[in-house]
């Protein structure tokens, strides 16, 4: 009995010593790098969650917008960070697509970044300029686009983004030609369509919705098999006869590969809790964003699935960037 008691005391002491040895996190302000501009869907998500994460962590959360190079500039900052308190909110382009698009990258997504949690997933929306394109259906648009004889242009939130590749896939399936005009983020790409600088775009809904309300942009279809409640009145591209054009634009937190697993799991648990907040879910749903959450392993599986699906598509389409 006495030996069992001593063993219990020893185990408790060891556990206490281990707990003391583990550093508290965070011990200073946490920086979240957003690789797109203010007002983009990634920016909205990061800012919506930042105050609640700060309350859980007992430290300020600082948002730093660093758009450029299709999101790679911002992801590179996170990948090379060594302060233990920098993370980023990433998306398909600079994580899953870029290795197939660029012959050289400043970081290796598979080696330099660790996925923490997928925050949201949402379809891209096919949208046209009301002033330039009279089409009200996908079929109308394809007819109009063919009549332009290759003079059509489209905006995207950046080279190699889900928006860019979804449009290229759609053009290939529909037998259309168009000039790609990339922007640094969805707000300027949406504004280009609203002002008639671009004829059409594919992107997630948040940046488009203000222009839809102002009757400057018309939404035609979603690129997913399932429509979010906020876009339930729109047909899918499969409904319009383009079943091969299916894509989801996802967002999620990533950290440098040097981050201890205990910290990864803490961020994951706290972000999951914030994503379950009814007010957060309502605000995201109002923007056409669907909450995902889940484990870091779930996020890794989703990235792997995107790499497996889109790698051959990118190769087939011959899209290469420098």
Structure description:
This protein is α/β, with parallel strands linked by helices and 322 residues long. It has two domains: 161 residues, Bordetella uptake gene, domain 1 (D-Maltodextrin-Binding Protein, domain 2, 3-Layer(aba) Sandwich); 109 residues, Periplasmic binding protein-like II (D-Maltodextrin-Binding Protein, domain 2), CATH 3.40.190. It contains twelve helices and eleven strands. The strands form two sheets. It has a six-stranded mixed beta sheet with strand order 2-1-3-10-4-11, sandwiched between helices. It has a five-stranded mixed beta sheet with strand order 7-6-8-5-9. Helix 4 crosses helix 12. The chain is globular and about 60 Å long. About 5% of the residues have low confidence.
